[in-house]
Amino acid sequence: MTITVVDTRTGMEGVLRAPAADRRALLEEMLEPSRGMYRYHPGEVDLADVHLRGMGFPLDRDGERCLAAVGELARADAWNRIGAAMEGAAAELAGAVPGLEVHDITVLLTLGDPGDAHFTDTALGVTGFGGIPGYVAITLWPSPENLERLESTAVHELHHNLRWAPGGVVWNPATVTVGEHIVGEGLADAFARQLYGDRLGHTRIGVPHLHDDAVFAKVVTGLEVTGMENFTAWVHGDESARRFGTAPVGLPAGAGYAAGTRLVDAYLAATGRTAAQALRDDHALIIDTALGRTAR
């Protein structure tokens, strides 16, 4: 198992210091190691376009601000910290799950867009994606809170990567349920909390709703919804749904993370398992146990 954290510091500095006409090509070059993350996407992927639409740092403004932010990431030793955290977390999972094969993983850390209010305010300056085995992407603005949580953010995505890897839980985009996604978020947060404690382990957008019974009850009504094109509102909330062109369902930002935490915590308490041991536990079993239902 090799975890490769791409040297995006050099890449981002090169992009941000280049003449405007050269930046897009340099951005594409920097992002090339992540191309395999889009292997299920039909047709050729424009990596720069994905970056810009995904709230990545801009090419036409805020250059000095972004260069300063790259410097903050460097002073925080972000790349080394992420690599060390993921290696330690992989060893923890391998020790907890008999026969677990930990595959090679490429990690891409990039700055987000400081001028995008949805990124800075709704997403609190951090997004992550670890759902495609072999790749983790973290888009971040180096606020003190996000820098402090670098490790927990990284191991959260690692948990996703190994849950949905070959031999693990199958993620079929057409048939997967909201319940699987929400349980996955709850397990990943529980794993981060197992390693780093409650203060650092929770995904920040879910924290305001952890004890909101109305939000929890609403999310539970959507657990059987299928098709990942419908998931944004149930997991990330209505603001994200509107941003990415899907229908809102009446939920605040991070609702799915809060509900997932409650479901997973109830399951772990009932079974005595750890989040590491539960890496690949069936989402229906977790939900039924948490809600006191007869197993399906």
TrEMBL record:
Q: Which domain of life is it from?
A: Bacteria
- DUF2268 domain location is 103-286
**InterPro entries reported for this sequence:** DUF2268
- Per the UniProt record, one Pfam family is DUF2268
Question: What protein does this entry describe?
Answer: Uncharacterized protein YjaZ
Give the originating organism: Nocardiopsis flavescens
